[in-house]
Amino acid sequence: MQNLGVMAQLACVWEATARKPGNVHRAADFAKLHYVDFLASAAAIGGVLDKAWFRPVGEIVLDAVKATRQVTATNTNLGIILALTPLAAVIPGRELVAEIPKVLRSLTVADAVLVYEAIRTAEPGGLGKAAQQDIADRPTVTLREAMALAENRDRIAWQYTHNFADLFEIGLPALARAMNEGRTPEAAIVAVHLAFMAAFRDSLIERKFGAASADEVQGEAGRLLAAGVAFPSAELDAFDRTLRERRWNPGTSADLTAASLFAALREGNIPLPWPWV
Prior knowledge:
By secondary structure, the protein is mainly alpha-helical. Helix content is 63%, strand content 0%. It has one domain (4-266): Triphosphoribosyl-dephospho-CoA protein (Orthogonal Bundle).
């Protein structure tokens, strides 16, 4: 299957549905952000991403954000769009790990201008003010150069300067291990999410609540991973309660989980249909 739009929709629906600690999912909403918002967002971006390799990355990002805002009133998927678009820009049938660097090297100033517009349209929280190439200004550098300026405070930006290494070194291996162990799709997705949370500070939590909070979340995720805790479990339930009580939403880890699922679908690593039970 090489329908990239459907792959993107599946990846987003699966990621949103899995009961990942601290995130919106099918059994837990936030006060102003609901599970259905994520389903609507997944539906909205499929058509935009389906033929992404024909168009500039910046155009795809902006169109996907605009499509999302037609069906949701708040930012649900900016990080996912930014993570999925370069992957979708690879011509179907070509290996992602070899082609992603070429896509990223080809990014232009025009791509940056359109992505900045997309970010302003999505209105994400916690961005703050940047000393250089601030999101409120018109960028004068390429999109990859702009991402380099943000990579220390945003792990999605980091992917643009490191050829999406987190997907190939963390997300896809974690997914493969979980699948080889015979875990259900939901348990495998939670395992990928936990692997990202343990590998680095979640940049959404760090931007909103500071480095100490992000360190605490990373440390607990690492402890659970080292202990071999798997979904479902009382330990993960307790972790989830703590995150929700403190409003620590590991959203960047969730975005990278969705991107890993999309990459796995593109590479044929997930057999379809993938029974949920």
